[in-house]
Fold Nucleoside diphosphate kinase.
Amino acid sequence: MSFNERTYIMVKPDGVQRGLVGKIIARFEERGFKLIALKLVQATEEHLEKHYADLKGKPFFPGLVKYMASGPVVGMVWQGLDAVKTGRAMLGATNPLASVPGTIRGDYALSVGRNICHGSDAVESAEKEIALWFPEGVAQYTQAQESWIFS
Ligand code: RTP
């Protein structure tokens, strides 16, 4: 358990196109996480292949990269108690058909190929993804600003 755990959450092109960015941000804010980085970016296929390197051999990999490059994404870093695990729970199951209502995918998505958002699946992958998407670094809060809901 870590109070200052960080996770990389990304609204995918379908989520941006459908105007769901604000709703997804609101869920993380309302849950109590702290936003430490945020950007809208049109990712290249090369960059997305690095992000999804672990899935390279999967049959859906080429389609996944094309989908992710089809429009801008919104990448963000949220920090707080067990951010990785809780972030994944807030997203819901990868296939929205299995996502329970109340989760982001369970409320807004139907298809695994258009499942609206990404969330890091482990602390190590979160740190890799944060370095890949935010090489310039993330916000540094002062000690006074660091007193947050759980700290
Ligand atoms: P994500 O990385 O997007 O948070 O998703 P995840 O960990 O829940 O799932 P993962 O297995 O890493 O798959 C990454 C993304 O690939 C697409 N996918 N398509 N057509 C298919 O069978 C299939 N399976 C996975 C989804 O967009 C999934 O989020």
The pocket of ribavirin triphosphate is lined by residues 55, 60, 64, 94, 112-113, 115, 118-119, 121 (CB under 6 Å). The mean pLDDT is 95.
